[in-house]
What we know:
The complex is a heterodimer.
Chain A: E1 2-3, E2 12-13, E3 15-17, H1 22-31, E4 34-37, E5 52-55, E6 62-66, E7 71-75, H2 80-87, E8 92-94, H3 105-110, H4 118-121, E9 128-134, E10 140-144, H5 149-155, E11 164-174, E12 179-187, H6 190-199, E13 205-210, E14 222-229, E15 252-253, H7 265-281, E16 284-289, H8 290-294, E17 300-301, E18 312-320, H9 321-338, E19 345-350, E20 363-371, H10 374-389, E21 393-394, H11 404-410, H12 413-423, H13 433-438
Parallel strand pairs in A: 3-5, 4-5, 15-17
Antiparallel strand pairs in A: 1-2, 6-7, 7-11, 8-11, 9-10, 9-11, 12-14, 12-16, 13-14, 13-19, 18-20, 18-21, 19-20
Chain B: E1 5-8, H1 13-24, E2 29-33, H2 40-50, E3 54-58, H3 67-73, E4 80-83, H4 91-96, H5 98-126, E5 129-134, H6 147-167, E6 172-178, E7 181-182, E8 197-198, H7 200-213, E9 217-219, H8 223-233, H9 236-239
Parallel strand pairs in B: 1-2, 1-4, 2-3, 4-5, 5-6, 6-9, 7-8
Helix pairs in contact in B: 1-2, 1-7, 5-6
Amino acid sequence: MQLSGWGNFPKRTTQLTAPRTEAEVAAQIAEGRAVARGNGRSYGDSAIGAARTLDMRGFDRMLSFNAATGQLVTEAGVMLSDVIDSFLPRGWFPMVTPGTKLITLGGAIAADVHGKNHHVEGSFRACVDWIDLMGPDGSVTRCSRDENAELFGWTIGGMGLTGVILRCAIRLRSVKSGWIRQTMIPAANLDEAITAFEDNMAATYSVAWIDCAAKGAALGRSLVMLGEHAEPGEVPPRYRATPFNAPRRRKKTFPMNAPGFALNPLSVRAFNALYYWNGSRQEGQQIVDWDGYFYPLDAILKWNRLYGRKGFMQFQCVLPQDRAREGLHRLMSAISESGQASFLSVLKRFGPQDSPFSFPMEGYTLALDFPRHARAIALMPELDAITLDHGGRFYLAKDSRVPADTFATADPRAAAFAQWRRENGLADAFASAQSERLHL
Amino acid sequence: MTHPVLILGARSDMARATARAFAALGHPIQLAARNADSLQAEKADLETRYGVEVTLHDFDALDVERHEGFVDGLPVLPRIAVCAVGTMGEQEENEKDPAKAVAVLRSNFEGPAIVLGVLADRFAHRGSGTLVGISSVAGDRGRASNYVYGSAKAGFTAFLSGLRNRLAKQNVHVVTVKPGFVNTAMTAHLDLPAKLTAEPDEVAGAIVKAVKKQRNIIYVRSIWWLVMSIICALPEMIFKKTSI
């Protein structure tokens, strides 16, 4: 069947199965060129098997929880939203979470996702204690920092190309409420935004929404949002009796694919200006619920339809700390001059990262969405070149279109990963549309 | 609401979702299926997610001789019992292979009816309880495409109806659930229309609500009521020539 990622592009033919038992997983792997898929939230072609795709959402059992250590053991198809549903009422929250909770833990490990606290606590890797991984011969290996450490290292961020993740142990963080104390800092331009990040390295969470349509002196104007888990006493009075029960918002579903003209330079510019103006009025501190703070887009199910039938592409790069400022200026200038402003753009300071093949490195990451039309597609090589010029690299979980040679130049670890896969007999068993496109 | 809930045929996707839905409300759960020890992961899941007590019980729906012993062997008589036992088989095989047809007829009708009958007696004696039978829209009218399965479900639907009638005066309630198409392992090989196909979670939610509101017969997606009303209203002269 035809399968795509969250960006609705590309669509690739693959044989999709939903195994229920480990024996069924092993049988699929034995056929070759398979990759596991979670909830399909990677944007590009990461979770489309080159020949076979294993829908792992049936493996959704939680197996144990240790309230002394916060360690949760689950099968790989358990969703982050389920973890929050079960454990926030008991005072626990994921240690690391990306901007959507509608992902499986297996997917979070494979992409080594990051959150608003990367600068302090690192990527998802930091909360993973061990992984049970099924190899090419169907045998299951437990790997951790102490046991099969090399396999553990490559698997986290390895995009499912080291085996099929069956189970994992992750650690949750203890929280005092389901609320976040948010501090909003309007930044009039890119330099002010960077200053706001650098001045607030001790904040638990930090992220900026950045206006890609602004030009000139306002280039890169941003709303920098800091966050701390709120104490029970800070919870709004009407929710204080049950501080973990934030109000549940009604979910809306984006009804259909929007027509291609819905997102045009004018509407994007207007939206961004309005968003900045509205955010600036909320300068200072506010108490917000966890769902609204971490997962604003989860409130609109199927929001990817906003971009219409042709789908959209994400551009996400990270630039090393010493060259980030200059590189970001060039990226923002290129985007604003092209008139192809991104509707949703996010800037984030990363902290140090020590891992063989994960995306983050100390510096700044910029994430942009573009509808898939000719002018936006034409802008991509320019952004790629600026990224390369400044020692940056690309995020596989978002990618559907970086040319193989560009990726290889940006990330020399890719060649090492590919070689390690060949040496360990993994290259034929595990392959995605993305791994074949980028020769991983 | 912390009364124990018994799930019969606990391995199926609908049963798993139903167990979760009741556990989420704090009910202790009794999971019953063949080879119950292999349900350890389900037990761990319910305990970990919801912090409720879960027990496992060997139960073979086809071994009707032992149903009384099974019910009396439960650590505590449940307040709510959900029967999710059933198997669809392949219509073509069911037509040609008597052994397969017998298995489908027995596992969709005989086994579920007998065990719910035993539970009904115990519930009536106690003077409280709710029985939930997962039947099927396939039982509303026999069709060429699945009448072996459908006729067994028709029998089960009639049994539940009679049970409800009998127990109405004894404070025991009976819910008949007709899920329509459900996206489960049993139907994974079929190409089902999205609008008519419910997720197991939806079925579970509908069951919990039906138990709470003491509903009698529920279609999980209300469109199925319409679809089946039309199918049932067709005169036999016309119906017999259709392929639906």
